[in-house]
User: What shape does this take?
Amino acid sequence: MPDECAETDQKQSQATSNLAWFLTGAFIGAAAAILYAPQSGKEARKYLTDKTQQGRDAVETASQDIADASKDMFERGRKLVDEAADLFERGRKLVKG
Assistant: This one.
């Protein structure tokens, strides 16, 4: 069972890393598009404002997802520790007789 938890933790870590790289790439791509797009100053500012808000929303959503995943991992870890402590206590009682 510990192998399953480690594998799940690794997958969640990889997903978080992938999301961070995706957001970084999206930001760089948006910045390049703005710099090379033929728009007026007003249109460019509106576009930047809209994209900035979309970026904030994406980061907020990703942050919440990461926080939720962290809470889940913490709870699973605490449960494993409690189970290990229980097993240790039962083993100690068996040895004592």
Summary: The two ends are 29 Å apart (CA to CA). Residues 2-96 form one domain. The chain has a mean pLDDT of 81.
